[in-house]
Write a structure and sequence with these properties.
By secondary structure, the chain is of the alpha+beta class. About 30% of the residues lie in helices and about 35% in strands. It starts with a strand and ends with a strand. Helix 3 (about 120-125) packs across helix 6 and helix 6 crosses helix 7.
Protein backbone atom coordinates (compact mmCIF):
# COMPACT_ATOMS: atom_id res chain seq x y z
CA UNK A 1 0.00 0.00 0.00
CA UNK A 2 1.38 3.41 -0.93
CA UNK A 3 0.57 6.22 1.44
CA UNK A 4 0.73 9.89 0.52
CA UNK A 5 -0.05 12.72 2.94
CA UNK A 6 -1.85 15.77 1.63
CA UNK A 7 -3.03 18.78 3.65
CA UNK A 8 -6.82 18.86 3.62
CA UNK A 9 -7.26 21.88 5.88
CA UNK A 10 -4.47 24.44 5.80
CA UNK A 11 -5.39 26.65 8.74
CA UNK A 12 -8.33 26.29 11.11
CA UNK A 13 -8.58 28.68 14.08
CA UNK A 14 -8.86 27.10 17.50
CA UNK A 15 -8.56 28.90 20.87
CA UNK A 16 -5.53 31.05 20.10
CA UNK A 17 -3.76 28.81 17.63
CA UNK A 18 -3.86 27.51 14.06
CA UNK A 19 -4.44 23.90 13.10
CA UNK A 20 -3.01 22.01 10.13
CA UNK A 21 -4.43 18.62 9.16
CA UNK A 22 -3.30 15.74 6.98
CA UNK A 23 -4.78 12.42 6.06
CA UNK A 24 -3.49 9.37 4.24
CA UNK A 25 -4.93 8.98 0.76
CA UNK A 26 -5.98 5.41 1.37
CA UNK A 27 -9.48 5.21 2.94
CA UNK A 28 -8.09 7.28 4.88
CA UNK A 29 -6.11 4.94 7.08
CA UNK A 30 -5.18 7.75 9.45
CA UNK A 31 -5.09 11.46 10.15
CA UNK A 32 -2.69 13.90 11.76
CA UNK A 33 -3.16 17.38 13.16
CA UNK A 34 -0.55 19.96 14.01
CA UNK A 35 -1.57 22.74 16.36
CA UNK A 36 0.53 25.88 15.99
CA UNK A 37 0.82 27.86 19.20
CA UNK A 38 0.61 31.60 18.58
CA UNK A 39 0.45 33.10 22.09
CA UNK A 40 3.41 35.34 22.90
CA UNK A 41 6.04 33.21 24.63
CA UNK A 42 4.94 29.98 22.92
CA UNK A 43 5.66 30.67 19.25
CA UNK A 44 8.28 27.88 19.23
CA UNK A 45 5.70 25.17 19.94
CA UNK A 46 3.53 22.84 17.90
CA UNK A 47 1.35 20.04 19.26
CA UNK A 48 0.97 16.86 17.23
CA UNK A 49 -1.84 14.31 17.26
CA UNK A 50 -1.94 11.21 15.05
CA UNK A 51 -4.82 8.78 14.74
CA UNK A 52 -4.65 5.57 12.70
CA UNK A 53 -7.45 3.04 12.42
CA UNK A 54 -6.59 -0.13 14.38
CA UNK A 55 -6.91 -2.33 11.27
CA UNK A 56 -4.40 -0.13 9.39
CA UNK A 57 -1.69 0.06 12.02
CA UNK A 58 1.84 -1.28 11.44
CA UNK A 59 1.64 -0.38 7.74
CA UNK A 60 3.53 2.90 7.83
CA UNK A 61 0.60 5.29 8.05
CA UNK A 62 1.65 6.87 11.33
CA UNK A 63 5.26 7.21 10.18
CA UNK A 64 4.19 8.93 6.96
CA UNK A 65 1.89 11.29 8.83
CA UNK A 66 4.60 12.10 11.36
CA UNK A 67 7.08 12.95 8.59
CA UNK A 68 4.62 15.34 6.93
CA UNK A 69 3.83 17.10 10.19
CA UNK A 70 7.48 17.51 11.18
CA UNK A 71 8.34 18.92 7.76
CA UNK A 72 5.56 21.49 8.20
CA UNK A 73 6.77 22.41 11.68
CA UNK A 74 10.30 23.00 10.36
CA UNK A 75 9.00 25.08 7.46
CA UNK A 76 7.24 27.34 9.97
CA UNK A 77 10.34 27.79 12.10
CA UNK A 78 9.07 25.82 15.06
CA UNK A 79 11.65 24.13 17.27
CA UNK A 80 9.60 21.96 19.64
CA UNK A 81 6.98 19.33 18.81
CA UNK A 82 4.73 18.15 21.64
CA UNK A 83 2.74 14.92 21.58
CA UNK A 84 0.80 13.00 24.19
CA UNK A 85 0.04 9.30 24.58
CA UNK A 86 -1.73 7.23 27.17
CA UNK A 87 0.84 5.36 29.23
CA UNK A 88 1.48 1.79 28.12
CA UNK A 89 -0.26 2.07 24.74
CA UNK A 90 1.17 1.54 21.22
CA UNK A 91 1.21 5.33 20.78
CA UNK A 92 3.45 5.57 23.85
CA UNK A 93 5.92 3.13 22.32
CA UNK A 94 5.66 4.75 18.86
CA UNK A 95 6.74 8.17 20.09
CA UNK A 96 9.54 6.82 22.26
CA UNK A 97 10.93 4.85 19.31
CA UNK A 98 11.03 7.91 17.05
CA UNK A 99 13.20 10.24 19.05
CA UNK A 100 10.57 11.87 21.25
CA UNK A 101 11.60 12.36 24.87
CA UNK A 102 9.20 11.81 27.77
CA UNK A 103 9.07 15.11 29.68
CA UNK A 104 5.87 15.10 31.74
CA UNK A 105 3.47 12.58 33.28
CA UNK A 106 -0.12 13.76 33.67
CA UNK A 107 -2.61 12.12 36.00
CA UNK A 108 -6.25 12.42 34.93
CA UNK A 109 -9.11 12.22 37.40
CA UNK A 110 -12.86 12.70 37.55
CA UNK A 111 -15.29 13.87 40.21
CA UNK A 112 -18.63 11.99 39.95
CA UNK A 113 -21.10 14.68 40.94
CA UNK A 114 -23.76 12.19 42.06
CA UNK A 115 -21.42 11.00 44.79
CA UNK A 116 -20.51 14.47 46.09
CA UNK A 117 -21.31 15.16 49.75
CA UNK A 118 -23.16 18.46 49.41
CA UNK A 119 -23.09 19.16 53.14
CA UNK A 120 -19.33 18.73 53.37
CA UNK A 121 -18.91 20.86 50.27
CA UNK A 122 -21.05 23.68 51.70
CA UNK A 123 -19.08 23.54 54.93
CA UNK A 124 -15.79 23.81 53.06
CA UNK A 125 -16.99 26.84 51.08
CA UNK A 126 -18.34 28.50 54.24
CA UNK A 127 -15.09 28.03 56.15
CA UNK A 128 -13.56 31.47 56.87
CA UNK A 129 -10.41 32.48 55.06
CA UNK A 130 -9.45 35.70 56.88
CA UNK A 131 -8.40 38.47 54.53
CA UNK A 132 -9.95 36.87 51.44
CA UNK A 133 -13.31 36.59 49.71
CA UNK A 134 -14.58 34.77 46.64
CA UNK A 135 -16.04 36.23 43.46
CA UNK A 136 -17.27 34.38 40.39
CA UNK A 137 -18.58 35.02 36.89
CA UNK A 138 -19.63 33.24 33.71
CA UNK A 139 -18.02 34.15 30.40
CA UNK A 140 -15.71 37.14 30.01
CA UNK A 141 -14.34 38.64 33.20
CA UNK A 142 -16.23 41.81 34.27
CA UNK A 143 -14.46 45.03 33.27
CA UNK A 144 -13.95 46.03 36.90
CA UNK A 145 -11.88 42.88 37.50
CA UNK A 146 -10.13 42.64 34.12
CA UNK A 147 -6.80 44.22 35.03
CA UNK A 148 -6.30 42.40 38.32
CA UNK A 149 -7.49 39.08 36.86
CA UNK A 150 -5.01 39.43 34.00
CA UNK A 151 -2.23 40.12 36.50
CA UNK A 152 -3.16 37.02 38.48
CA UNK A 153 -2.50 34.76 35.48
CA UNK A 154 1.17 34.70 36.45
CA UNK A 155 0.09 32.21 39.13
CA UNK A 156 0.47 29.55 36.41
CA UNK A 157 4.02 30.53 35.46
CA UNK A 158 5.70 28.18 37.95
CA UNK A 159 3.19 25.35 37.63
CA UNK A 160 4.90 21.96 37.91
CA UNK A 161 5.60 20.85 34.33
CA UNK A 162 8.73 18.74 34.89
CA UNK A 163 10.97 18.94 31.77
CA UNK A 164 8.29 20.14 29.34
CA UNK A 165 9.29 23.23 27.35
CA UNK A 166 5.94 24.99 27.18
CA UNK A 167 7.33 28.52 27.31
CA UNK A 168 5.77 31.28 29.39
CA UNK A 169 2.58 32.87 28.13
CA UNK A 170 2.61 36.65 28.15
CA UNK A 171 -0.87 37.52 29.38
CA UNK A 172 -2.60 40.76 28.54
CA UNK A 173 -6.22 41.87 28.67
CA UNK A 174 -6.78 41.15 24.99
CA UNK A 175 -5.68 37.52 25.36
CA UNK A 176 -7.82 37.04 28.47
CA UNK A 177 -10.88 38.34 26.64
CA UNK A 178 -10.08 36.42 23.45
CA UNK A 179 -9.95 33.05 25.18
CA UNK A 180 -13.27 33.64 26.93
CA UNK A 181 -14.85 34.75 23.67
CA UNK A 182 -13.64 31.65 21.81
CA UNK A 183 -15.11 29.39 24.50
CA UNK A 184 -18.43 31.21 24.14
CA UNK A 185 -18.25 30.93 20.34
CA UNK A 186 -18.15 27.15 20.71
CA UNK A 187 -21.36 27.31 22.73
CA UNK A 188 -19.60 26.33 25.95
CA UNK A 189 -19.76 28.06 29.33
CA UNK A 190 -16.63 29.32 31.04
CA UNK A 191 -17.18 29.65 34.80
CA UNK A 192 -14.46 31.29 36.90
CA UNK A 193 -14.10 31.48 40.66
CA UNK A 194 -11.47 33.90 41.98
CA UNK A 195 -10.01 34.62 45.38
CA UNK A 196 -9.73 38.32 46.19
CA UNK A 197 -7.36 39.95 48.67
CA UNK A 198 -9.76 41.96 50.83
CA UNK A 199 -7.06 44.50 51.67
CA UNK A 200 -6.78 45.90 48.14
CA UNK A 201 -9.42 44.11 46.03
CA UNK A 202 -6.86 42.34 43.85
CA UNK A 203 -7.40 38.82 42.51
CA UNK A 204 -4.79 36.45 43.92
CA UNK A 205 -6.05 33.11 42.59
CA UNK A 206 -8.58 31.55 40.23
CA UNK A 207 -10.03 28.29 38.99
CA UNK A 208 -11.82 27.80 35.67
CA UNK A 209 -14.42 25.26 34.60
CA UNK A 210 -15.73 24.79 31.05
CA UNK A 211 -19.20 23.28 30.61
CA UNK A 212 -19.88 21.58 27.24
CA UNK A 213 -22.36 22.99 24.77
CA UNK A 214 -24.87 20.25 25.58
CA UNK A 215 -24.70 21.14 29.31
CA UNK A 216 -24.62 17.39 29.90
CA UNK A 217 -21.92 14.80 30.56
CA UNK A 218 -18.64 16.02 32.01
CA UNK A 219 -17.27 19.54 32.38
CA UNK A 220 -13.54 20.22 32.13
CA UNK A 221 -11.37 22.16 34.56
CA UNK A 222 -9.00 24.48 32.71
CA UNK A 223 -6.58 26.16 35.09
CA UNK A 224 -6.28 26.58 38.84
CA UNK A 225 -3.61 28.85 40.26
CA UNK A 226 -2.73 30.92 43.32
CA UNK A 227 -0.07 33.64 43.35
CA UNK A 228 3.05 32.43 45.20
CA UNK A 229 2.75 34.99 47.98
CA UNK A 230 -0.77 33.76 48.83
CA UNK A 231 -0.22 30.00 48.81
CA UNK A 232 -0.54 27.53 51.68
CA UNK A 233 -3.73 29.20 52.91
CA UNK A 234 -6.25 26.76 51.47
CA UNK A 235 -7.34 29.05 48.65
CA UNK A 236 -7.09 26.46 45.86
CA UNK A 237 -9.36 24.00 47.65
CA UNK A 238 -11.74 26.82 48.61
CA UNK A 239 -12.09 28.06 45.04
CA UNK A 240 -12.43 24.61 43.58
CA UNK A 241 -15.08 23.66 46.14
CA UNK A 242 -17.10 26.71 45.14
CA UNK A 243 -16.69 25.71 41.47
CA UNK A 244 -18.06 22.25 42.26
CA UNK A 245 -20.95 23.74 44.21
CA UNK A 246 -21.81 26.01 41.27
CA UNK A 247 -21.84 23.00 38.93
CA UNK A 248 -24.17 21.10 41.24
CA UNK A 249 -26.51 24.05 41.65
CA UNK A 250 -26.51 25.68 38.23
CA UNK A 251 -25.76 22.74 35.90
CA UNK A 252 -27.92 19.89 37.17
CA UNK A 253 -27.50 17.78 34.02
CA UNK A 254 -23.73 17.48 34.43
CA UNK A 255 -22.48 14.07 35.53
CA UNK A 256 -18.87 14.78 36.41
CA UNK A 257 -15.90 17.16 36.41
CA UNK A 258 -12.60 16.28 34.74
CA UNK A 259 -9.14 17.48 35.63
CA UNK A 260 -5.52 16.65 34.85
CA UNK A 261 -2.49 17.33 37.02
CA UNK A 262 1.23 16.81 36.65
CA UNK A 263 2.36 13.83 38.70
CA UNK A 264 4.93 16.07 40.38
CA UNK A 265 2.30 18.65 41.39
CA UNK A 266 1.68 17.06 44.77
CA UNK A 267 -0.14 20.10 46.17
CA UNK A 268 -2.90 20.14 43.55
CA UNK A 269 -3.14 16.36 43.60
CA UNK A 270 -3.81 16.51 47.33
CA UNK A 271 -6.53 19.12 46.76
CA UNK A 272 -8.21 16.94 44.12
CA UNK A 273 -8.00 13.83 46.29
CA UNK A 274 -9.54 15.64 49.26
CA UNK A 275 -12.42 16.88 47.11
CA UNK A 276 -13.23 13.38 45.87
CA UNK A 277 -11.67 13.25 42.39
CA UNK A 278 -10.86 9.68 41.32
CA UNK A 279 -8.02 8.62 39.01
CA UNK A 280 -9.03 7.58 35.50
CA UNK A 281 -5.84 7.24 33.45
CA UNK A 282 -2.27 8.47 32.98
CA UNK A 283 -0.67 10.05 29.93
CA UNK A 284 2.91 10.81 28.99
CA UNK A 285 3.82 14.13 27.38
CA UNK A 286 6.55 13.74 24.78
CA UNK A 287 8.76 16.38 23.22
CA UNK A 288 10.89 16.40 20.08
CA UNK A 289 13.45 19.12 19.43
CA UNK A 290 13.85 20.01 15.76
Amino acid sequence: MTLRTTPTVTAVPTDTDDLLRWRTDDAPAGTAALRLYTAAGQEHLVELTIDVRPEDRRRGAATALLAAAIDAARERGRRTVLAQAEAGTPADAFLAARGFRAVLTLLYSRLPLADTDRGALDALVARPHPGYRLVSWVGTVPDALLETFTASRRAMDDMAMDDADLGTVTWDTELVRAIAEKVAARGELLHTVAAVDASDGSIVGFTELVVPQSRTGDAQHYGTGVLPEHRRRGLAAWMKAESIRWALTEQPLLEGLLTDTARSNTGMRAVNDALGYRPTHTTVQYQLEL
